[in-house]
Design brief:
The complex is a heterodimer of chains A (156) and B (286). By secondary structure, chain A is mainly alpha-helical. Chain A contains 2 helices and no strands. Chain A is rod-shaped, with a radius of gyration of 61 Å. A 3-stranded antiparallel sheet of chain B has the order 2-1-3. The termini of chain B are far apart. The chains are: A mainly alpha (156), B mainly alpha (286).
Chain lengths: 156, 286
């Protein structure tokens, strides 16, 4: 093992290699590595954010769904209420209408009855006069017995 | 193997000899043709094979990493980018774990140390005769392909790290702080005279531990790789010992190579981790 100029040559070579590595090799590679590290970190953060947002969206969707269900139930309730109201209203109207018709019919019937009664009364008066004329065998003066006749008619 | 009549000793020695280019004792420059010639050159010589392979491997490392760095994007990474990023992340995690101060140099330093040493160590897994055989065929006598089995390479790195340590120690703590670190601990006293006695003792201890850092750093790597290489060479010797021994040697080589993958990676990792730790020590105040 002879120590000679090779020692110096090797030292110079070594120093040159280290210098070259320090200037042209290490910085770009480390820069790329750092950049990738940052990218990955950003990506992970974005993924986490996305997951969080999805969670929020899911929660929100569930809320909306729940609200919609409540609203639907309310609407159905209202519709049912309105339906029964309409039925009730219809019933009332029908009852009123029926009663009105009934009343009108009754009034008409009464009118008819009264008219018939008046007619009957007249006819009875005539009959009574005819009867009385026959009984008395003479003409009854209608005018003279007007008051009497009216009394009679009123009694009928 | 350049000669047919090669003894085991010669074979091993041949494999452990670097291709040396340097100043001959007579003053002329040229390749050493024998180990003795290389030795005679002394300090004024250079291991061409170590330089060539280490620079080639360093360029391989820088080429692929630079390629990724140029096209690095934060989207889905491709195969090569993924691989490079894996290594970069691994080094970055190690640096973040051990290095507490802020210095843009340490992480690239650790990355270079790790990948470069790994690649240099990895050359050990190429069968010991392949590349030297190829080189011999083209007329090159010696070819040691594992740069980290050359102490020049490991000391070169360790000393560079050591000077960085000294530089940052002085830069962060100042000369007085650094001197204080060397002389005022581990033994301390309220008494001025006792403290004065402690200073040389402290200095001795701290100085030895300071010097031990680059030495142990480089010798650990060198020793491991050199021993691994030696075992590969010894196993390769068995191939010339007949069929039975050859098959046994093949199995041994396979086993040792698999185990060596661990050593290759582990030594690169240890060198990197210790570099980070030493740099952290240089940055931290006591």
């Amino acid at each position: 093992m002879n120590i000679n100029l090779t020692l110096i040559g090797q030292s110079i070579t070594f120093v040159f290699f280290v210098w070259f590595c320090m200037k042209f090799v290490w910085p770009p590679i480390m820069a790329a590595l750092d950049e990738r590290r940052k990218k990955i970190a950003d990506g992970l953060a974005a993924a986490e954010r996305g997951a969080h947002e999805q969670e929020l969206a899911e929660k929100r969707a569930a809320e909306v769904l729940h609200e919609a269900k409540l609203q639907a139930q309310e609407i159905i309730g209202q519709a049912q209420k309105r339906g029964s109201e309409i039925v009730e209203e219809a019933k009332t109207t029908a009852r009123d209408e029926g009663e009105r018709l009934l009343t009108a019919a009754r009034a008409e019937i009464e009118q008819e009855v009264n008219r018939a009664r008046e007619e009957l009364r007249g006819q009875v008066a005539n009959l009574v006069i005819a009867g009385a004329s026959k009984v008395l065998k003479r003409e009854v003066d209608v005018a003279a017995n007007e008051d009497l006749l009216n009394d009679l008619v009123a009694q009928l | 193997m350049s000669s047919d009549t090669l003894t085991s000793t010669e074979y091993i020695k041949h494999h452990l000899q670097n291709l040396t280019w340097g100043k001959h004792p007579d003053g002329s420059w040229g390749f050493a043709h024998t180990a003795a010639e290389a030795k005679d050159m002394g300090f004024m010589a250079i291991h061409v094979d170590t330089m060539f392979w280490s620079i080639l491997l360093g360029l391989v490392f820088l080429y692929f990493f630079r390629k990724v760095a140029k096209t690095a994007q934060s989207g889905t990474p491709g195969g090569l980018q993924n691989f490079v990023e894996m290594i970069v992340e691994f080094v970055d995690t190690s640096v973040r774990g051990s290095f507490s101060a802020k210095n843009d140099l340490v992480a690239p330093l650790a990355l270079t140390v790790f990948v470069w040493i790994f690649l240099m160590n990895f050359m050990d897994l190429i069968p010991v005769d392949w590349i030297p055989g190829l080189a011999a065929a083209t007329g090159i006598h010696f070819m040691k392909v594992v740069p980290s089995t050359d102490p020049n390479a490991t000391f070169g790195m360790a000393l560079s790290v050591f000077f960085l340590m000294l530089f940052y120690s002085i830069k962060i703590k100042g000369i007085s702080g650094f001197t204080g670190e060397l002389t005022l601990q581990p033994f301390q006293s309220k008494n001025v005279i006792v403290q004065a006695i402690f200073i040389p003792i402290n200095f001795l201890l701290e100085f030895v531990s300071l010097i031990a850092k680059p030495v142990s750093l480089s010798l650990r790597l060198f020793g491991n790789m050199y021993a691994g290489e030696m075992i590969f060479i010894l196993i390769a010797l068995m191939f010339s010992g007949g069929l039975a021994l050859g098959i046994f040697g093949g199995l041994l080589q396979l086993g040792w190579a698999i185990f060596h993958i661990l050593i290759v990676t582990l030594q690169a990792f240890i060198f990197m981790t210790l570099t980070i730790v030493y740099m952290d020590m240089a940055h931290s105040e006591h």
